[in-house]
Amino acid sequence: MSEQVLLDQVVLDCADFSTREINHQLKTLAAEGITQVELLNPAGRHNLAVGVNAPLKIRFRGAVGYYCGGLSDGVEIEVLGSCGWSVGENLMSGSITVQGNASANAGATAHGGKICILGNAGPRAGISLKGATLIVTGNVGYSSAFMMQQGRFIICGNAGPSLGDSIYDGEIFVGGEIDSLGADARLEPLTEEDWHRLKADLNPLGLSAEQCNFKKIVCAQELYHFKAKDFSKWKDAY
User: Fold this and answer.
1) What does DSSP assign to residue 189?
2) DSSP letter string, 107-129
3) Contacts by 95-103 with C-beta closer than 8 Å and gap 24+?
């Protein structure tokens, strides 16, 4: 049987549907008042649960491909496996939890909500983050938080080269080592409020903020306005 309905919960086997059909079913089920959908055998397929604008709980039992949960608003997605590029790209609200590793561009341009990668993330994680909270419990690759605009990015492990390059705004917290900071990113001391918020974000994941030597990175604002005498800074940055 490809679809099973248990009260307000539906179980779908992805093997029986195309990606377009799966996404259409998710939106239809949400409109019918279904609150939870369990998806079996996603088999690393791309573009799953894209553009779902409803408070629907979606659980993938297996790895998913790129753009999972992208352009969604209000969803609560759990991936029991790893994911491909750009998980949660342009997420507006809701949450995405990946019980594994993420490829490049995790949380790219996400406006709101929370994306948790319970593993490592590839390069450019949090690129152009626009207001969401992105948490990576492991390490992140090079150029993460590139052109970050708003939001919070918490990295419990190490960060690769050029972290926060050309950051406009927002806050980055790194619990491990930082290979190097990008242009216009600088370290800043943590406040009591920062530690309070880190605890609030990490405790639900079973993690203790105190076990990490968190560093805080913000925008130095030296590239906000072009000045001819600072041409070398711009040249080096771009």
Assistant:
1) P
2) TTT--SSEEEESS-B-TTTTTT-
3) 96/68, 96/69, 100/63, 101/138, 102/136, 103/66
DSSP tag of 140: B
Q: Given the structure tokens 């090079």, which residue do they identify?
A: 142
68 CB neighbour count, 10 Å cutoff: 29
Nearest to 215 by CA among 138, 157, 142, 130: 157
From the list 105, 9, 110, 101, the residue with the least C-alpha distance to 59 is: 9
Task: Give the predicted TM-score (pTM) of the model.
Answer: 0.93
Distance CA 121, CA 128 (A): 16
Torsion sign (Cα): 26, 46, 69, 20: negative
CB distance 94 to 74 below 8 Å: yes
Distance CA(218)–CA(68), nearest Å, equals 29
230: tokens are: 């600072």
> What percentage of the chain exceeds 90 in pLDDT?
88
Per-residue pLDDT reduced to its tens digit, 147-176: 999 999 999 999 999 999 999 999 999 999
User: For 205, which DSSP code?
Assistant: G
Instruction: Let me know: does 124 contact 107? Beta carbons within 8 Å.
Output: no
- Apex 10 CA angle, 6 and 13, nearest 5: 125
Q: How confident is the model at residue 232 (pLDDT cuts 50, 70, 90)?
A: confident
Which residues 6+ apart lie within 8 Å of 113 measured at CB? 88, 91, 92, 93, 94, 95, 96, 132, 133
Q: What is the pLDDT of residue 1?
A: 41
